[in-house]
Amino acid sequence: MTGAQFEIVSINVGKPVAVEHKGRNFMTGIYKQPAKEPIFLSSLNLDGDAQADLVHHGGRDKAVCVYCYDHYAHWEKELGRPLACGAFGENLTVRGLREEVVCIGDVFQLGEAVVQVSQPRQPCFKLAIKYDLPDLPVRLQNTGFTGFYFRVLKEGWVSKDHPLQLLEPHPMRVTVAWANRIMHHEKQNAGGIRRILEVDALSSSWRRTLSARLEGKATDETARLTGEVETGESG
């Protein structure tokens, strides 16, 4: 699979904006717009992009959010509306790079930059607010169509005119889809958790969560997804 190329349909960026929901005010960076010109990718984010909640969003392990364009037809049918690129708050809308294909630790060439898969995305309640569908984050999670994050190994200019090319597949071959299953549906699978933790490229946030689970320290994931607590990772 080394050398495999994937089409970048769109590169999307946006600054945080204020939204009101049920009497509460939030800042969110989930509203992205396609960029028309090449953009510089630093170790933290794309130029012109930002996150509102820097405790749970962004950072070196989550510099670039990626979503597979293949899933758009499913969600257009589910939501009953056409969707523009960036609909799920992603920075890269990519064709063909599905969760069952990409693995944590895989390294890609992205224009001048070099990036590495760090973890699956965990959609939070701000996606629900955007579409006024309280269960939308859970629906993304249950389908497995979550997307994932890149960390930046080498900074550089990026453009949708250049393909995303696989440079180094990670030898552990822990797919994003499999990691999602262990995180969300097989929470007591200690062997699976240990296997994910063996991936050296795993993000620090997932490492903390899974390590805590092994130690018997549960987290209220339903509250995170619905917004009853503000601990979502990717609003």
Which secondary structure elements does this structure contain, and how are they paired or packed?
Blueprint: E1 5-13, E2 17-21, E3 24-28, E4 33-34, E5 39-41, E6 64-68, H1 72-79, E7 92-95, E8 107-110, E9 113-120, H2 125-131, H3 136-143, E10 148-154, E11 156-158, E12 164-168, H4 176-184, H5 190-197, H6 204-214, H7 221-226
Parallel strand pairs: 6-7
Antiparallel strand pairs: 1-4, 1-7, 1-12, 2-3, 5-11, 6-10, 8-9, 8-12, 9-10
Helix pairs in contact: 5-6
CATH architecture: Beta Barrel
Largest sheet report: 7 strands, mixed, barrel
Give the tally of structural domains. Answer: 1
Can you give the mean pLDDT?
89
- General shape: globular
Q: Which percent range describes the beta-strand content? A: 25-35%
Structure report:
- The protein has 235 residues and is α+β, with helices and mostly antiparallel strands.
- The protein has a single domain, classed as PK beta-barrel domain-like (M1 Pyruvate Kinase, Domain 3).
- 24% of the residues lie in helices and 26% in strands.
- It contains seven helices and twelve strands.
- It has helices at residues 72-79, 125-131, 136-143, 176-184, 190-197, 204-214, 221-226; strands at residues 5-13, 17-21, 24-28, 33-34, 39-41, 64-68, 92-95, 107-110, 113-120, 148-154, 156-158, 164-168.
- A seven-stranded mixed β-barrel has the order 1-7-6-10-9-8-12. Strands 2-3 form a two-stranded antiparallel ribbon.
- A hairpin with a 2-residue loop joins strand 8 and strand 9.
- Helix 5 (190-197) packs antiparallel against helix 6 (204-214).
- The longest helix has 11 residues, at 204-214.
- The chain is globular.
